[in-house]
Every structure is written in structure tokens, then in C-alpha cells.
């Protein structure tokens, strides 16, 4: 019998790893990967809460399902944008993306 | 047995998610992400959500990671050698903030008294999932299902429009 | 009668069609389309007039009919603005006048404006003007009238400034707009006062007679509020109709194309003021008869002033412009001296009759002047002379119009002017004598113009003048025809102050004396200007200062300039400008400077880096969590 809190601890670590990546990385794709981590950790939480706290219901399950779908969509569009950026400035480092600022 | 499997999965997830964000090479980063996603799928299987695990494997591991790898190869012809270095202070600040956040969250999680929680085994019937997904009653998900299908269509079109070469 | 709605709507559609689609049309298409549209409108107007007068009187009077009615804006129970079409004798008469003159001008412009830049725009504006003017005359309520009143002002502005590359035209259009705008302020205040105290905009209700009773208690500075309101409304009418001292815009308005002068500044728009007074005539009689005397005096003075100035001008369009002002003065006098009903109401009939005949012959005069200017290329009399050989049609039609305006029988002007004089004698012998004198002056200056243009010494010309094309002479002939015979219309049958039939009798003494006076004046003009003569110069030296003053229009324009430039601009506006620039702008600039300085200090926070923002966000979240959980 595994306690629910164990799962939550794992997902928390994953979540903050994602947060850290989001701050730390300078590559747009790496930032996107960090966001995937964050999303995944939340998915785990949904599934776990559903299974442990409300076993008779399906809300958490479907939330996870839809979150996976939406993250797929988000990734597709983000990657399209990143490729477009790369085509324009041959670089995807965030520090270089300041053309519109000046 | 379950405990052992859980610890293995937890170790995989924790180690690789940290590696994902700390490695300097972006392609490795994507690969580590793949392992994390596998671990997550494993957790879903362990929770008896086989359908969710399958979806996780096919969409994330099968689809999204391939997309990442392709785009990494497209955008970094040099294999991502030139990762710009950050000032140490910023790295430190990010690290401290994240760690503090993690510690805080874990602390709260462990101190919080949840309602009676117990693992109720039992696979969800595909029929149940199907009815819930396409029904219009309470706790049924026809509307979000349709909304997400429209969203995906919009993404397909939007992705093509953004990424296509302008003549 | 429902065709009246079409009369109302069709010109608007024409305007939109020509204004929006004009770019894609050739000149010929746009011109023909505009003319065709107006032909239809004219026919409809005639049909409406025929039906209205054909239906006969009921109870001995012409009943006003509202053939179309729409509640446009409803603010409260009492305050509603309506749009509608009111047919009564004067509005039907105006419909006929406006559409006829407008049609003639449309046809004429096909020739006159040929090849001009912006030909389509010109026709679009003409349609807009026709629409506004028709809307004005059929207004069922005073507010609708005000709306269209402003619209005619706008279209007049647009048409005066048609040659927008000419600085003089731009200045003239601005002058016309601003002067009439000032007058319209009076009109608006008058409308608001009137409707506030009578609780209605509607003409029919205003005429019903019991509205004055409801407001009789209210007085202001010794006069009843209704009288004040009517006085202010007259100010608006005076501005539009170029009554002294608001006349200064009309002579300058001659910078516009000549057909426009004929349509707007001779026949239709400038008589809107007369029409306004006629429209509210029962109210004037009932609430403020003393105001009518004032109107008569203003009209008489304007008439005299303009006639004197017209005698010395050398620009033929200016002469006609002052002549117009003078004739409108006649109409105002006629309305001012009129009473209600029967023989006392003769002035009203005469004023409306003169409005009708004047529209025809003055449009004719302007169109003739246009034909002359078209071939000579100048407005100055000195460039003309001896034109009768080259332009026979223009010559004859111009002569007809001159005889009409001078009041020689059997031309139309004789009948209408004679009735005005009769009405003036009826009011007071002094007024009668004065107006007869002005009529004599009219004959003099018109024939001065006539002889200077068509007789006298020929100026040196680079090419021989030629007769205008048929598209221009046809309207001339038509209008000359109308001018010849319009006098025999039994006008009193159709229009009278109380709607009861009134048969016009010629007053033998008045008719004889006025015709005699006109003949003497024509004789003097003949003697002076038939051939090159030293007499005019002698007269000019004899009158010396007076002549120079008249030539400069008695310095009224200079007076206006002095008041605006020296007193208002230099005295008042500059102080205000200083305050505005240093105090108000200063305060604003201070605010802006402070904001900018502060912004420079803190702009580092706004790095544009999402990651930095997210970091701050996380720190904030953590702090809030700590605060909520542990404290």
C-alpha cells in the first residue's frame, strides 16, 4: 500500500524541476520542455487525487486526458512559432529575441 | 512488489526530470524528458488507469517527443553547442527559489490531513469511458470533447500557417 | 401624395450614388445620371403640386397634409424628434421652385462645367443640396427644419469652395459657413426656447393658436419669451437670407461656380429665411406683431443698402449678389408689413409671389451671367461690352430678366413687386415711398449692368465671343419663358396668409407710379451707359466720398475684420491663448514630464523577458503561501 503523499512528493519535485528549467534555460525549446514537465506533474496529481480520494468518479481522469490533448496542441503551435523565429533570425535563444523591444 | 515498482518509477522521474533541466545539451534534455514521460505512464498504469497510460505513451512519448527531436535537429545544426552561460547569481536565485518552493510544497503536502484516502483498485471499463466522453448528462464530457477537437483543428491550421514558407 | 416621399428620398440616393460611385463614372455619365434623377424628381414635384391643388379646398382653406411621418428620436414623452413631409401651399410652391431651378441648373451645368476637374463631385453636391433644400421646405417640425437648414449650409459651403485650389474660394466658403453658423446659433436658441415653453416642435401644433396662451406668463426683459424666441429664430433666417448686417457672406459666395450661385445664392437657399418667417407667420402675428415691424425695417434697410452698393460694383456677379440681397429685403418687407387674412394679408401673398418670380428671373440672370463669363473668362464689366452681336440668345433672355426685375409689365416681376409696394403703402406711406425708390434703383443698376455688358464700347479681346452651347441656352430660354408668363398665375388662389382665396387686384396708382419710376431709371441708365460717356465718371466725382464708400460696401466687411482681428483676436483671444499655453498646457506638460522621468527610473523592471516576470511571480506566490500558511 503506497501512500498518496508519496505520489504528491514526486510530482512536486517534478513540478519545481520544471519551474527551475523555465527560469534557467535560455533555449526556447528547452523552456518548452520545462513546461511539459510542469504539465505532467499536474496530470499526475489529478490522476492520483481521483484514484485515492474519489474512486467512484471520473473527473480527474478526464482532466488528465484533456490536459494531454491540450498540451499536444500547445506544443505543436509553439514549435511552429519557434521554427518561424529560427527561420527569421537563425537563433532561438531568448536573449536574442529583443528586436521588437527597440 | 508494488512498493518496489513505485520506488523505481519515483527514482526515474525525479532523477530524469532534474537532469532534463540541468543538462547543457538540448537533445539530451529531450531524451530525458522521454524517460520522465515513461515514468509518468508507469504511474498511471500503477494507478490502474491503463487507458491514461496508453494515451500518455502514444501522444507524449510517440508524438510530442518526436516533434521535439525534429525541431531540435532543425533549429540547431551544430548540435546545440553554444548554450549561453547565465550569470551565476541568476542561476543561484532560480535554484534557491525553486528549492524553497519545492520544500514549502512538500512540507504543506505532508502536513495536510487529507480526507480518508485509500487505494481502490479496479480498472475503468472502456465502455464507461466512452459513454462519459460522448454523453451530454452531468459528469459527461461531450462539450469539452468537441471543444478540444475544434482546438486541435485550429492548431493544425495555425501550425501550418505559421510555419509555412512565405513565397 | 405618397410620391412626395420619393421626392424626399431620391436626391439623397442620387447623392450617395454620385458621391460614392462617381469616381468610376465618366463625366458624361455622372452628369446625365444626375440630370435624369432630377428630372424624375421634378416631374414628381409637379405631380404632387397638381394633386395637392387639384384636390381642392376643404372648408374654404387649403388644409396642410402630413403625407409621411416618422418618429425618429424619442427622448422622453414630451421630447420627440420627428421626420416627416408636410404639404401645404407654400411648401408645395417651394417644391416646384426648387426642383425647377435645380433641374435648369443641372442641365446648364452639363455645358458650363464641361471638362472641369471634379465634375462628378459637383453633381453629387448639387444632389445633396437639392435633398437638403427639399427636406427643409417639407419639414413638419422646426427641428427637422433646423437639421436640413444646417445641411443646406454644409452643401452651400462645399459648393462655394468647389474650386478648392483657389484661396479666395476657400476663404469665401469659410466666411459663408461661419457667418451663417453664428446666425444659426440664434436660430437654435430660439428653437429651444420656443419648444421649451410650448412643449412642441410641430408646426401644425404651433399654429393651432393655443400654444402662446400656455407660455404667455413667461417674460424676459419686458418681452414675452415667445417673442424673444421668434426674434432669435429670425436672426437665423436673417443669416441665411443675408439680411443686414449678416449679409457679408453672400457677395463673397460668388466665388463658387456660377450655376451654384444661381441655384443656391439666388433662387433657393437664400430665401430659406423668408420661407422660415412665412412658415411661422401665424405665430409672429399672434405672439409678436411688433417683431414683424422690426423685420420690415431690417428688410427695407437691407434692401436700400444693397441696392446702393449694387449701383457701383463692377463685377457682374457681385452686382447680381447685391441685387439678390436687395430683392430678399423686398420679400422680408412684404412679410413684415403683412397682416392676417383678407386684404391685410396682401403682403404675405406678395412676398411669396415675389419669392417665386424672383427665383425664376434671378436664376435666369445668373445663368446668363454664367454664359457670359464662360465665353469672356472674366467677371469684370470692363472686359465686356457690345456682346449683343455675338450672343443673341443670352442677350434677349438677359433683357427679359432685367425687365422683370425692374418691374415692367407684363413680365412676372412687375406683378409681384407691385403687390409688395401696394402692401407697403397700406402699411405706411413712408415705407411705400422708400420701397418705390428702391425699386427705381433696382431698375437703374440692372440696366447699368445690361448696357455695360451688351452695348457700350467693346473691350479688346483675344478671340471673338461666341454663343453658349445649347445645353446652356435651353435653360435660359425656359426660364425666360417662365419669367414672361409667371405673372399671370392667380397666385392668391394658391397661397395666402390664412389659406382663404384672395384675388389680387392691381392698384392703378401704385402700378403707374412704379412703372414710371422704373422707366425713368432705365432712361438714366440708357443715357449713362448706352454708349461710352463721361457722365458716370462725373457722377462718381460729384458724389465723391459716398461713391467710394458704396464701392467698398460701406466698409461693413472692414468693420467686421476690425472687430474680429483687432478686438476679439488681439484683445481677448491672445490673453486666453497665453493662459492656455502657459497655465493649462504648462500643467499638462508638468504631468507628462514627471510621468516620463519616473518611467525612465523604473523602466528597468520592464525588461520584456518572460522568465524574469515568471520569477517575480513565483517569489510573490511563495511569499503569499508562506504568509497564509504560517502567519
Per-chain topology:
The complex is a heterotrimer of chains A (102), B (167) and C (631).
Chain A: H1 4-24, H2 28-53, H3 59-89
Chain B: H1 2-22, H2 26-46, H3 50-75, H4 88-111, H5 126-134, H6 142-163
Chain C: H1 3-21, H2 27-54, E1 65-74, E2 80-87, H3 89-112, H4 119-137, H5 142-160, H6 167-198, H7 203-207, H8 211-215, E3 219-220, E4 223-224, H9 225-240, H10 249-252, H11 258-267, H12 272-279, H13 281-287, H14 289-310, H15 316-337, H16 346-376, H17 392-406, H18 412-427, H19 429-454, H20 470-485, H21 491-494, H22 508-529, H23 535-543, H24 545-551, H25 556-602, H26 610-630
Antiparallel strand pairs in C: 1-2, 3-4
Helix pairs in contact in C: 1-2, 1-4, 2-3, 2-4, 3-4, 3-11, 3-16, 3-20, 4-5, 5-6, 6-9, 9-12, 11-16, 14-15, 14-19, 15-16, 15-18, 15-19, 16-17, 16-18, 16-20, 17-18, 17-19, 17-20, 18-19, 18-22, 19-22
Pfam family, one (chain B): Oxidored_q3
Subcellular location (chain B): Cell membrane
Family (chain B): Belongs to the complex I subunit 6 family.
Question: Describe it for me?
Answer:
The complex is a heterotrimer of chains A (102), B (167) and C (631). Chain A is mainly α and 102 residues long. Chain A has a single domain (4-92), classed as Helix Hairpins (Orthogonal Bundle), CATH 1.10.287. Chain A has helices at residues 4-24, 28-53, 59-89. The longest helix of chain A has 31 residues, at 59-89. Chain B folds into 2 domains: 2-118, NADH-ubiquinone/plastoquinone oxidoreductase chain 6, subunit NuoJ (Four Helix Bundle (Hemerythrin (Met), subunit A), Up-down Bundle); 125-167, no CATH class. Helix content of chain B is 74%, strand content 0%. In chain B, α1 (2-22) packs antiparallel against α2 (26-46) and α2 (26-46) packs antiparallel against α3. Chain C is mainly alpha-helical and 631 residues long. Chain C has a domain at 556-630. Chain C has helices at residues 3-21, 27-54, 89-112, 119-137, 142-160, 167-198, 203-207, 211-215, 225-240, 249-252, 258-267, 272-279, 281-287, 289-310, 316-337, 346-376, 392-406, 412-427, 429-454, 470-485, 491-494, 508-529, 535-543, 545-551, 556-602, 610-630, and strands at 65-74, 80-87, 219-220, 223-224. In chain C, strands 1-2 form a two-stranded antiparallel ribbon. In chain C, α2 (27-54) runs antiparallel to α3 (89-112) and α15 (316-337) packs across α18. Chain C is globular. The chains are: A mainly alpha (102), B mainly alpha (167), C mainly alpha (631). The B-C interface holds B 93-94, 97, 100-101, 104, 108 and C 615, 618-619, 621-622, 625-626, 629.
